[in-house]
Design goal:
Largest interface: A-B, 76 and 93 residues
Number of strands of chain B: 6
Radius of gyration of chain B: 28 Å
Helix content of chain B: 40-55%
Oligomer: heterodimer
CATH topology of the domain at 47-206 and 458-495 in chain B: Serine Threonine Protein Phosphatase 5, Tetratricopeptide repeat
CATH architecture of the domain at 47-206 and 458-495 in chain B: Alpha Horseshoe
Distance between the termini of chain A: 60 Å
Strand order of the largest sheet of chain B: 1-3
Strand order of the largest sheet of chain A: 1-2-3-4-7-8-9-10-17-18-21-22-24
Structural class of chain B: mainly alpha
Shape of chain B: globular
Radius of gyration of chain A: 29 Å
Strand content of chain A: over 45%
Chain lengths: 470, 495
Amino acid sequence: MYVNDAGSLNTVASYFGRINYAFRSKYLLTASLRADGSSKFTGSNRWGVFPSVGAGWVISQEDFMKGQNLFNTLKLRGSWGKIGNMSVPANLSVLTVNSSYVYTGGDGSTAAGASITTIVPPVTYWERGVGTDIGLEAALLNSRLTAEIDYYNRKTEKAIFDIPILGSLGTSGSSIVGNQATFQNQGMEFLVTWKNTASTDFSYSLSANLAINTNKVLEVSTGAIPIYQAVGTTGSNNYNTRTVIGEPIGEFYGLQVIGIFQNVGEINAYKNSKGTVIQSTAVPGDFKYRDVNDDGVIDDKDRVVLGNPNPKFTYGFNSTWNFKAFDLTLDFQGVAGVQIYDANLGLRYGTENFTQDFWLNRWHGDGTSNTYPSANIGGGLNYRSNSFYVENGSYFRVRNAQLGYTIPSSITDKIKISKIRVYLNAQNALNLFKYRGFSPEIGGGPTRAGVDVNVYPLYATYTFGVNVTF
Amino acid sequence: MKIYLNKMLKVTRITGLAIASLLILARCTDKFLDVPPQGQQKAEQFFVSESDATKAVNAIYANLRSWTNTAFAPIAIESVGSDDAEKGSDPSDATFMNDYDNFTVTSTQGQLSDFWNGQYQNINLCNQVLDNVPSINMDATLKARYLAEAKFVRAYSYFRLVRAFGDVPLRLTTPVNTSDYNIPRTPKAAVYAAIEQDLTDAAAVLPQSYTGASVGRATKGAALALHAKVSMYLGNWTDVKTYTDLVMGMGYSLYSDFGNLFRIANENCSESIFEIQCSLVLGNSAASSSQYSQVQGVRSVTGGGWGFNVPTQSLADAFETGDPRRDATIIFRGETTTAGDAIPATVPNPMYNEKSYVPFSLFVSGYNEGCQQNVRVIRYADVLLMNAEANNELGNTVPALASLELVRARARAGNNAILPKVVTTDKDALRTAIWNERRVELAMEFDRYFDVIRQGRAATIFGPKGWKANKNEVWPIPQSEIDLSVGVLTQNPGY
């Protein structure tokens, strides 16, 4: 009998040092150095040394700023630092024995089977984050208005994840886990907050933030070769993400849909420049694909970049309001400039359900749809990774709304309770998005992000509560 | 001054102490950080003893039962393309199987890579044995046998690959350097040469039979019979005759009752040459893992299965009038099987494969239906028919007719009103008779599709379903392999 006794045990040792220095509250300096050793790595790559340094200049403390009363605080700061990521699988470069095989003899007996069925990278290095941040902070108008602007460049070096390897190597898992890519997120962040106490009865604060991000791959373990992943697509070799130098990590990749074949005439009329019928095996209701290289067939050479799972913009708006015994909190949040690959639409075994959206909009006869295919979405070439499955992933959400009321102390004092507050809270009450799936928040590892494979629908939570303080 | 010096000394001492203790700490932490993989054996500790060699060879056989070796992938690659079988099951379930039936499959379809990966997994397991067992200090006879067993399975896997894809990357050792990972396709002829070498080596060493737990391992007869089959695909009729003659002198015999040949009780019988051993071991799901019977079992019946790879009307019509093999090969909707199972008239398909069928009473809830059914890879009837064909091609009509008659006589089971003895001495007519006999004798045993291509009749027989010459002789290379090889692997023409 096969008993799986595998698990993981990890040990970590760290040395850490830090200096904080402030000169006349004007010049600030922080430096730290840490050395981390992890049992997950072996040999000379076991220890990682991670320095960081931060400097600040409080401009508003300078003599030349004495005369002005526009800025209450003005501060320029910059930092640079490295960190190591220990949340990676252990012993990646240690080749182990696969003992999962059970031999069954002709007499009905069983015996243990084992062999070597994996390939491991010869060395594994620490996955490191290297970040640079330059920012300006200001407080104005009696510190009622505060603002921050930051430029950042955060690199993830030697990111550890799995990539597919050639099936002909005959490994049991057809992937290899190791240091695969270096990529960067670069961008700007803005934060503006306005706080005001208008009277003893009324105060409020408003805050808005915006981040603009660009994701780019700087290095991949496979060199000039892209890292492909098939995430949730029909057919294990139907790749829908690609990671290649100079492009965003895990960008969506596949065929470009230019319409739906309405009838046999359209199929026969769809020819390349040499007059070859491009999709001769198609049937009406199938996707019509762009023959990118004009060779008269639709194949892997016609694949193009279909979208980016890394959001370009993330933004939020938070506010709190206090009026007499009432308090109100409203938090909004959103992302824009991002795409989702809806793998749920591609029927894998033909026994899954269609969404109502798909069923109502599907092609079901000449002229019924030029965007949605027929219900035969799993057949022909329709299941191939393509632009139909890629959608706008932007959303805007009322993340949290809370209205509270504090019962006047004149009443609570009598029953010897210092405070009673009742509140109504709504989480995710309002979600605005165009995406046809259930939830535009997908997640996923670096090269597998943004692909909706049975992602749970987002749910709203409504809470009524009472806070009692004795 | 003195005080100051004292202080200095103290500081130095403390510093020294600190440095020393740090060094000790660093040493301690290095030990503390040495954590081996938990519950897993390191590869460097494997392949040192005889028991490791045994386990590594056992793993080869265990993998032969796997999903990619016996279930959907072989149905797609080796069966539904033929005129004998079609997808079956519910019309909407696994519609991609139809792409293999009507030849519209494209390179990204998943069964291609499943089949490819499954065979290369076998090959890796064989190469691990062939690379590492020679240096183990162990019983020399057993060692030689283990190496021969690995060569047999490696040859079997490469044969399945070369039939399915044509030129394929030929790996005869496990890769040592990363530069060994991405290798181009080896010409078909060289792959066949490697297969033949392995089978020659294996046949020279393997025993004729085994006892007890070893029953089911590769035998000399298996290596010779597979070599005959490989030679038949190459058209080397002299070799086919040589190897089949050898097997025919080894004591194999046709099992008298064709109707019960495929039941559990008759596994590894006198007719069996090589079977993939499958079991139902209570409390051991890893041993009871085969889905070979399950995927083909009668659908919508407890103890049945998923209902894929069903016989076609064309196959049902191919049997001569009164041939008992028709009823032994096909479960008809509404019939009661000889094992006593009443098949409801309401099941979704008119016919199911009876050769993979396990009586419903043997089903144990919680285990795959029919997981105890062995996969018959080569049986003696196949050897006789290969012998008949080789003799006919070589002009030896008498032994050709004799071998053919052995197969027909067994099917006839004493009823002289059916299956008359073939007496033609015309070479072409006899060839056709042998081919027809192969079809009905080996129906639903994953032989027909590539057999017809080998015979050069695929354009005629499969053409009406969409099969095209100079394209469909082989399937497309999995797109994933081409992508990952960045063009080192090329696609087959027409795909």
